[in-house]
Amino acid sequence: MSLSVDIEKKLGGFSLRVQLDTDDAITGLLGASGCGKSLTLQCIAGIQRPDRGRIVLDGTVLFDSERRIDLPPQQRRVGFLFQQYALFPTMTVVQNIRCGAHALPKAERESVTREMIALLHLEGLESLRPAQLSGGQAQRVALARMLAARPRLLLLDEPFSALDAHLRDQLQPQLRTLLQQVGRQTVLVTHSRDEAYRLCSRLCILEGGTAVRTGPTKAVFADPQSVAAARLTGCKNLAEARRLDETTVEVPAWGIRLQTAAPVPQDLCAVGLRAHYFHPRTAANRFAVQPAGSMEEPFEWCLLFRYAGQNPGSDALWWRMPKEKKPAQMPAELGIASQNVLLLTRP
Predict the structure, then answer these.
(1) What value, to the nearest 5°, has the Cα angle with vertex 79 and ends 74 and 82?
(2) Rounded to two decimals, what is the model's pTM?
(3) CA–CA separation, 53 and 70 (whole Å)
(4) 3-222 maps to which CATH number?
(5) Which of 185, 79, 171, 196 is nearest to 121 (CA)?
(6) 45, 294, 6: which is closest to 189 by C-alpha?
(7) Cα separation of 338 and 115, whole Å?
(8) Domain extents for the chain?
(9) pLDDT the model gives residue 160
(10) What is the DSSP-derived secondary structure letter of residue 21?
(11) How far apart are CA 269 and CA 86, in angstroms?
(12) Closest-CA residue to 303 (of 285, 283, 281, 328)
């Protein structure tokens, strides 16, 4: 199963420009609120019509502006799970699931409904209404209703946003297992880098309506390529930089020069240093530092520091570590390995 999306859409003052080609089981759309993630899903599902472009699902053209193809949502065989699940409040669990199978022959609806109840472990809840369900139960009912329609592609729009943190952590591995069982290609929208990393084998990062980085999830985290992608994947330390030679960059705001393992691109604009990668015994890129504060988290410490020659008006850098690794005082120097310098060529 493959999905190809190349679309543009203007909505008020907002412009969406997305290119995405994937045959991965779960592809994530990662970005901040308002970046165009949900709008992209709506265009794939046929809820919104792009201004131009093309959408192809496993060889079937869903939309093509030049050929004037625009299949209606019911013909696309795409399942859409909304953030709040959109269950019918006056219907029971069974009735909600049966609604998903309404396009199937009558004789098949009941068997499909029973199949979904067993698959989603909803036995004993059949006669309950949405208001009587927990958040996790409501999510499973919404998934069952969507799967009952036999979709070829699943679109999940922030499927954990309505759940508390504990339940979210419990349900993420369950959802991944379920999606593996049903064998449907999935596109999942999230604003959480942890959720994207755990669930998605491929990632498309959106910033201001534009896809700024696409690739295998681990590769995107290792080499985000843009400041926006580095920030969205959790990099705390970012600064403008300029290329000095093939393996040296200068960071004026920090007052340092960094050696890199990868060749420095000619169009370098910034660097990123992830907060977990500093170490007082690392010999590479080792500079004098001065303490600038600290923040305690439930299981980690964040020590803030500035380089000795750093611009006083620039932000302090973050050094994050497990609680048991916190030093009694800030070391005089910190280093970071050359392979851990992120080279960024776009804002």
Answers:
(1) 115
(2) 0.90
(3) 11
(4) 3.40.50.300
(5) 171
(6) 45
(7) 54
(8) 3-222, 235-344
(9) 84
(10) E
(11) 44
(12) 328
